[in-house]
Design brief:
The protein has about 190 residues and is an alpha/beta fold. It is built from seven helices and seven strands; from the N terminus they run E-H-E-H-E-E-H-E-H-E-H-E-H-H. The strands form two sheets. The chain has a four-stranded parallel β-sheet, with helices on one face. A three-stranded parallel β-sheet has the order 1-2-3, covered by helices on one side. The longest helix is centred in the N-terminal third of the chain and has 21 residues.
């Protein structure tokens, strides 16, 4: 929030984080109260320091509204209304385009990709370089006709490619310790910005 490089700052709050700190043991009560107060003070500071707060349910909007008058309800993704010029809703006869962008390697949940291919109303789009034999496994799938491999897309064309998709997914296998530590969706947000 203190960085000066962003012209507009948005806080998206999807949970009542201070309320999630709880425990049953009496000797931890003081620590829990301290943690809640610390987390609440941090959240208040963030809410005051941004241009707009978006929350996923009304009580959170009301709570954040006490710190920032520009606090609004942000419905879950499937309820957003598209307001971008030229935005359109895909017709019922067209497949839903599910897209992964990133390195295509053995750190991905390939079983999930295969489940997408089994859906008759979906297409799986993969954008990025391949680092292992993952694509051979997907090409051998009985519904490989629903697989679209884009390969490496030049950075200046990536935004337009992603705007043609319906759903962007990050399917890293977080059971792998190195993946759980380093996986972030910020790169996907950068691509669609």
């Amino acid at each position: 929030v203190k960085l000066k490089c962003f012209g507009f700052k948005v806080y998206i709050c999807n949970d009542e984080f201070p309320a999630r700190i709880r425990g049953r043991e009496r000797h931890r009560l003081f620590r829990q109260i301290y943690q809640k107060r610390l987390l609440q003070a941090y959240e208040n500071s963030v809410a005051r320091g941004v241009d707009i707060c978006l929350a996923t349910h009304v009580p959170l909007v009301e709570k954040l509204g006490r710190m920032n008058p520009e606090s609004h309800l942000c419905l879950h993704g499937h309820s957003f209304k598209l307001v971008a010029p030229g935005a359109s809703v895909r017709g019922a006869e067209e497949p839903i385009k599910i897209c992964f962008v990133g390195y295509i390697n053995d750190k991905l949940r390939i079983d999930w990709f295969e489940k997408v291919l089994e859906q008759s109303d979906m297409e799986l789009h993969l954008i990025g370089p391949e680092e292992s034999g993952v694509l051979e496994r997907l090409r051998a799938h009985e519904h490989a006709e629903r697989l679209v491999i884009h390969g490496i897309v030049p950075h200046e064309e990536l935004h337009d490619s992603l705007m043609d998709m319906d759903v962007l997914v990050m399917l890293y296998d977080a059971r792998l310790p190195e993946v759980a530590i380093m996986t972030t969706n910020s790169k996907t947000f950068q691509y669609v910005a």
